[in-house]
Amino acid sequence: DVTEIEEKEAQAKQEEQIMKEQELSNLLHEKRYLKALGLAISLDRPHTVLTVVKAILKEPEGRRHLEENIVRLRKDQKEAVLAFLVTWNTNSRNCHEAQAVVETLLKHEAPDSLLQFSGIKSAVESLLPYT
């Protein structure tokens, strides 16, 4: 009978998820945005990533801070943010944040580098009608 083992594994995963959620909350409160972005991306939480982006933009010199944080993300994290912002851009409440991230990516990534992103073609096709 493996039911007990599976239940323990599920409980351990749930506890780990709760710990990460608490850590994310603490990072946002401490304004440690780069770590918060990385954690939200690793948890695959587009809305939380959007919340972090909005928090950064509310800071004095928010655009500069956003650029600093986005530039420091790994390539796979940038790809995830690109996928998230395609959805954000379709909503008028979130389009400004999406456009700020797009601007940062276009400004700091070489065109050849952007072409290497997975899903870049569909992302651009989705962004064009709303941009």
UniProtKB/TrEMBL annotation:
<dbReference type="GO" id="GO:0030686">
    <property type="term" value="C:90S preribosome"/>
</dbReference>
<dbReference type="InterPro" id="IPR013934">
    <property type="entry name" value="Utp13_C"/>
</dbReference>
<dbReference type="GO" id="GO:0000480">
    <property type="term" value="P:endonucleolytic cleavage in 5'-ETS of tricistronic rRNA transcript (SSU-rRNA, 5.8S rRNA, LSU-rRNA)"/>
</dbReference>
<dbReference type="GO" id="GO:0000472">
    <property type="term" value="P:endonucleolytic cleavage to generate mature 5'-end of SSU-rRNA from (SSU-rRNA, 5.8S rRNA, LSU-rRNA)"/>
</dbReference>
<dbReference type="GO" id="GO:0032040">
    <property type="term" value="C:small-subunit processome"/>
</dbReference>
<keyword id="KW-0853">WD repeat</keyword>
<protein>
    <submittedName>
        <fullName>TBL3 protein</fullName>
    </submittedName>
</protein>
<feature type="domain" description="U3 small nucleolar RNA-associated protein 13 C-terminal">
    <location>
        <begin position="21"/>
        <end position="131"/>
    </location>
</feature>
<keyword id="KW-0677">Repeat</keyword>
<keyword id="KW-0539">Nucleus</keyword>
<dbReference type="GO" id="GO:0034511">
    <property type="term" value="F:U3 snoRNA binding"/>
</dbReference>
<dbReference type="Pfam" id="PF08625">
    <property type="entry name" value="Utp13"/>
</dbReference>
